[in-house]
Amino acid sequence: MKKGGILNRHLSGALAELGHGDGVLVCDAGMPIPDGPRVVDLAFRAGVPSFAEVLDGLLTELVVEGATAADEVRTANPAAASLLDGHFPELALVSHERLKELSAGARLVVRTGEARPYANVLLRCGVFF
After folding, report:
1. What whole-number distance in Å separates Cα of residue 69 and Cα of residue 91?
2. 39 torsion bin: left (phi>0), alpha (psi -120 to 50), beta (else)
3. What is the torsional sign of CA 68, 70, 75, 78?
4. What does the pLDDT look like over 43-94, one tens digit per residue?
5. How far is CA 37 from CA 40, 57, 72, 123, in A?
6. Bond preceding residue 34 cis, omega within 30 of 0
7. Which residues are catalytic?
């Protein structure tokens, strides 16, 4: 049994399968989930777990070389925009429609219980060396 880190067995296993360049969509409860990627649904109820909690947990276990979010986050959800800017100084911004299109190419989708709009980010995995 693991003694720390991500304890959810489905999420922990999915993270172990990721490689360089793979996409991971961390999304709010309302984001349409495309057919194709593996999905780990952590949503329990509105707001639980939060986008921030899940993103912070993932970033302790993943090497991330890039991130993309919807430009609408800037006006619709300043708290999420601030969180993303803090983690990703070179955050790429696209339209929400484009982010949904890009999500189809993700290898993994992690759905949170976040109930504030545009709390979504597509991470691109890097390597640790």
Report:
1. 7
2. beta
3. negative
4. 999 999 999 999 999 999 999 999 999 999 999 999 999 999 999 999 999 9
5. 10, 20, 24, 14
6. no
7. 20
